[in-house]
Structure formats: structure tokens, C-alpha cells
Write a structure and sequence with these properties.
This protein is an alpha/beta fold and about 160 residues long. The protein has one domain (about 5-160): P-loop containing nucleotide triphosphate hydrolases (Rossmann fold, 3-Layer(aba) Sandwich). It has five helices and six strands. Strands 2-3-1-4-5-6 form a six-stranded mixed sheet, with helices on both faces. It is globular, with a radius of gyration of 14 Å. The protein binds guanosine-5'-diphosphate and magnesium ion. Keywords: GTP-binding, Nucleotide-binding, Repeat, Ribosome biogenesis.
Length: about 160
């Protein structure tokens, strides 16, 4: 029985880049503009011999307005409902933002298991962000670079219990 992995997180952390890498296809739109992924996209995902359904989410769409939190919850709730495990992606280069903290505290209360992914971790620029991400209370981060394909073995290890 294939399992389902949903990728969540605020805009621009590299969710779609990770999706594309795991899907091995350019199905999700990657862009520097926050909120470019308008819909969920799913594909057959593969990494290190594991096969699963991978789901990309928009994260948060459009502008940061009053409806942000409600929107985030609604969208993420629906995606999480269908998932066996969530990859909660943060940007190790930017570090943890208030939105990441907010999102994390909400995820800690949920039922879906969460793997914390510290993306953009190539080189040394991500080190402070990786350390900072331990504060989120979601366990040890898996540092990786979706763009450069680094850290995939650790991601496989983190996903194994759900396979
Ligand atoms: P999303 O909004 O979370 O889906 O983020 P995207 O996948 O659209 O990526 C946002 C930006 O981050 C793009 O410019 C990507 O090229 C860049 N990006 C994604 N992954 C990495 C990474 O591993 N390292 C670096 N340095 N940049 C990345
Ligand atoms: Mg995206």
C-alpha cells in the first residue's frame, strides 16, 4: 500500500522544488513569487527505493492579510487529513520566522506525524537556521537541499517508518 506524503510550509521555502525532485518531473510550478502554486499537485514520488504519493501545497497564497491564518489552516488541514506524514519545510537560510513558529505550534497539536525539513541547507549559510529549527519542537530537522539534491539519504531514513 503506497503511503502519502504532503509537503507543507510557508511560501518560498522550496516546497515545490522538493516536490519536483521527489516526483522526478517538473509538475509543480517553481517561482520566486510567494504563493505561485495555486493548487495541490500530486505525483508518484520516489526516493531511495521508497515509493509514495507526494502532494505539494500552495502554502499560503497571495498577500499576507487577515485571512492568512484561516486560509493556512483550511488548506493544510485538508491536505493533512489525507496524508500519512507531513514534510514541514523551513528555509534554513532565512531562519525561523514568526509564521514558521505559528505553523509549528499548530502542527504539534495535530495528529499527522511531521518530519521537519530544513531546506536550502547546502553550504554553510544554512547552519544557523538548522540549529534554530530545533526550537520548533518537531524533533530533529532533516537538513537538505532540494535544489542540489543533498540530504536525500537522511530524508529516506526519516520516511522509512511510514513506508
Ligand atoms: P515554495 O513556494 O515553497 O513552493 O518554494 P519554491 O520551490 O517555489 O522555491 C522558492 C525559491 O527557493 C526558488 O527560487 C527556488 O529556486 C529556491 N530554492 C528551492 N530549494 C532550494 C535549495 O535547496 N537551495 C537554495 N539555495 N534555494 C532553493
Ligand atoms: Mg510552491
Amino acid at each position: 500500500m503506497p503511503f502519502t506524503v504532503v509537503i507543507i510550509g510557508r511560501p518560498n521555502v522550496g516546497k515545490s522544488t522538493l516536490f519536483n525532485r521527489l516526483a522526478g518531473k517538473r509538475l509543480a510550478l517553481v517561482d520566486d513569487t510567494p504563493g505561485v502554486t495555486r493548487d495541490w499537485r500530486s505525483a508518484d514520488g520516489h526516493v531511495g527505493g521508497l515509493s509514495f504519493t507526494i502532494v505539494d501545497t500552495a502554502g499560503l497564497e497571495d498577500v499576507f492579510d487577515d485571512s492568512l491564518e484561516a486560509r493556512m489552516r483550511r488548506q493544510t488541514e485538508q491536505a493533512l487529513e489525507r496524508a500519512d506524514v507531513a514534510l514541514f519545510v523551513i528555509d534554513a537560510r532565512t531562519g525561523i520566522t514568526p509564521l514558521d513558529r505559528h505553523f509549528a505550534s499548530w502542527l504539534r497539536k495535530g495528529r499527522t506525524p511531521v518530519i521537519l525539513v530544513a531546506n536550502k541547507a547546502e553550504g554553510k549559510a544554512g547552519l544557523p537556521g538548522i540549529l534554530e529549527s530545533f526550537e520548533l519542537g518537531l524533533g530533529d530537522p532533516v537538513p537538505l537541499s532540494a535544489e542540489h539534491g543533498e540530504g536525500m539519504a537522511d530524508l529516506v531514513e526519516a520516511l522509512l517508518p511510514f513506508a
